[in-house]
Each structure stands twice: as structure tokens, then as C-alpha cells.
Write a structure and sequence with these properties.
- The chain is α/β, with parallel strands linked by helices.
- The protein folds into 2 domains: 126 residues, Nucleotidyltransferase, domain 5; 153 residues, 2-Layer Sandwich (Nucleotidyltransferase, domain 5), CATH 3.30.420.40.
- Helix content is 35%, strand content 22%.
- A 5-stranded mixed beta sheet has the order 3-2-1-4-7, with helices on both faces. A 5-stranded mixed beta sheet has the order 10-9-8-11-12.
- The two termini are 13 Å apart.
- InterPro entries: ATPase_NBD, ROK, ROK_cs.
- Belongs to the ROK (NagC/XylR) family.
- It holds the Pfam family ROK.
Length: 297
């Protein structure tokens, strides 16, 4: 297979690309997801696939689809996704498209994109954290994506960093990293002062005392989590992806300062920390790369 279609099903947009086996994006096409609760978004995805096939000069016989939720063991569908994308659970995409299709969790897809064509390329053991509306991620172990029992490995946002907090995550964890850092909780965490992480970071950059305290408290918790990963898994590299990484120095400068305090560095060795190469297209690139890998295996 020389080319594959990669589809990333996001809450806002459906992103479609044609990717070749060298990681070059040949075509791309974005449309609104329009998750109306009735499953019409599936027709939108089919339209994206048909459009991409129509504008390519050669037949495309492989599709990778990145989606929130837990993929099944065969990576043919999403087996569990509560709360949104009605009809996604157990939906068989290969039958729907009439084309060989593999399905993967969206954060896992981002890891695959970085491992195949991005910052993780060449490493065998790595962690990717996605920092956005929530917090997710993926694990690379011995050069392979580790999906774990029920394909749910990498839900790092549901680590409990404050068990005394009554706020429960989607998976039932009190005081989760996702609550401490995710964009979805910023209004509640800031007592209504900020409606987005972007607004919070802007307040931090303007030296607002409350914004500075709240932002740095979140980054401290992220630093503790990353240092814990280093202790438990000892990866070669940890990559951060997602919209919150667009804060750039406002994120990485204090984060590295906290890691200087918390990370154990025997003989001055430390875990490499980098921002991801891919941003909005990571899910689509990773989905296509995952499909390439499945065909080869």
C-alpha cells in the first residue's frame, strides 16, 4: 500500500488526509463534525473519504480512522465511547467504507504519528501526553504502541493527583490530572474568572496573581506526573501534544523548573522532554500510519 487515507474524528472538525508511506501529506480536507446526537456525523466522514478518493489519481485501498474512545482488540471499531458521537460504539467502518479500515484511539494515533514521522522516531520507549480539552496519551514500549486491557492504556488524565478532591473524572478518579489541567474544567477551577486555558495563560503572562497561582499549580501537578512517569517507566523521551502546548514558553519554562526539583537524575541523566512535531493533524497522520503498520504486520 503506497497511500492511505487518515481520518481524525474530533469534537469540532473531521480532518481527512491522504498520506504516503514516507509520511508526506498529499491532500487534506476538513469539515465540521456536526455531532447532532443522531449519528449524522458518520455520513460526513463517508463524504470526506469519498472526496479524498475522488481527487487522488490512483485507487486508495487502506483507511485509518482516529476517534475518541476505546478501540476493540481487532482495531475494527470503537467498543466504548460514552457521552457523545452517538452510534460510534461497535460501528463497523470497513463495511461502511467498503475499504480495508483500522480504527485507533485518537491519543494513540497522535503517539503513532510522532513515533513514525515525528519527535519520537528512532526511540523504542516513549510517552506522549495530549493536553487539551482533557488529558490523554499513549505508551510506546519496545517500539510498539501498547494498548493494554480493553485498549485503554494511556489515559494519563485519569491519574489521581489529589485523592481528597471530590471532583471525579469520567473514569471515576478523584482529583485527576485532567481536572487539574484540562480546558474543560477551567471555568470551575477559576471560579468563573477564566473561560479557557488561553485566557488563563494570558493572565499569567500579564502577572495577574490569581492566574499565576492557578496556572503554576497546574503545571506543578503536570511536573509531578511526568517525574512519576520517569520513576515508574523510565522512558527515553516524553512528548507533549495538544492545544495547551501552544502556550510555548509559558508552559515549558515553569514545567522544566519543576522537573529540576522533582525528577530523579542519576549521574545527571534526565528524560528528554519535547513538544510534538504534529499538532492538529496528528490524529489523521497517526491513523494512516497505524493502518500502514497493520498491513505490514
Amino acid at each position: 500500500m503506497k497511500t492511505a487515507i487518515g481520518i481524525d474524528v474530533g469534537g469540532t472538525n473531521i480532518k481527512g488526509i491522504i498520506l504516503n508511506s514516507e509520511g508526506e501529506i498529499l491532500k487534506q480536507h476538513f469539515v465540521p463534525t456536526n455531532d447532532d446526537g443522531e449519528g449524522k456525523w458518520r455520513e460526513t466522514i463517508r463524504d470526506v473519504v469519498q472526496y479524498l478518493k475522488s481527487i487522488h489519481n490512483e485507487p486508495i485501498e487502506l483507511i485509518g480512522l482516529s476517534c475518541p474512545g476505546f478501540a476493540n482488540a481487532e482495531n475494527s471499531c470503537i467498543s466504548y465511547m460514552p457521552g457523545r458521537l452517538a452510534g460510534v460504539e461497535h460501528f463497523q467502518w470497513e463495511t461502511y467504507f467498503g475499504t480495508k479500515t483500522f480504527v485507533v484511539n485518537d491519543a494513540h494515533a497522535a503517539l503513532i504519528a510522532e513515533a513514525t514521522f515525528g519527535e519520537i522516531r528512532g526511540y523504542k520507549n516513549a510517552i506522549l501526553l495530549t493536553l487539551g480539552t482533557g488529558v490523554g496519551g499513549g505508551l510506546l514500549i519496545n517500539g510498539e504502541l501498547y494498548q493494554g486491557l480493553s485498549q485503554m492504556a494511556g489515559h494519563f488524565g485519569h491519574l489521581s493527583i489529589n485523592p481528597h478532591d471530590d471532583e471525579l473524572s469520567l473514569l471515576g478518579m478523584p482529583g485527576s490530572l485532567e481536572y487539574a489541567l484540562g480546558n474543560y474544567s477551567i471555568k470551575r477551577r477559576s471560579s468563573g474568572r477564566f473561560l479557557s486555558t488561553h485566557e488563563l495563560v494570558q493572565g499569567y503572562l500579564e502577572n495577574d496573581p490569581f492566574a499565576s497561582w492557578l496556572w503554576l499549580d497546574s503545571i506543578r501537578k503536570l511536573g509531578l506526573t511526568i517525574a512519576s512517569f520517569a520513576n515508574v517507566l523510565s522512558p527515553e523521551i516524553i512528548v507533549l501534544a495538544g492545544g495547551i502546548t501552544k502556550a510555548d514558553a509559558a508552559l515549558f519554562t515553569p514545567l522544566n523548573a519543576f522537573l529540576d526539583v522533582y525528577e530523579f537524575r542519576p549521574k545527571t541523566k534526565q528524560t528528554l522532554l519535547k513538544p510534538a512535531k504534529f499538532s492538529d493533524l496528528a490524529g489523521a497522520v497517526g491513523a494512516a500510519a497505524f493502518a500502514f503498520g497493520k498491513v505490514k504486520s
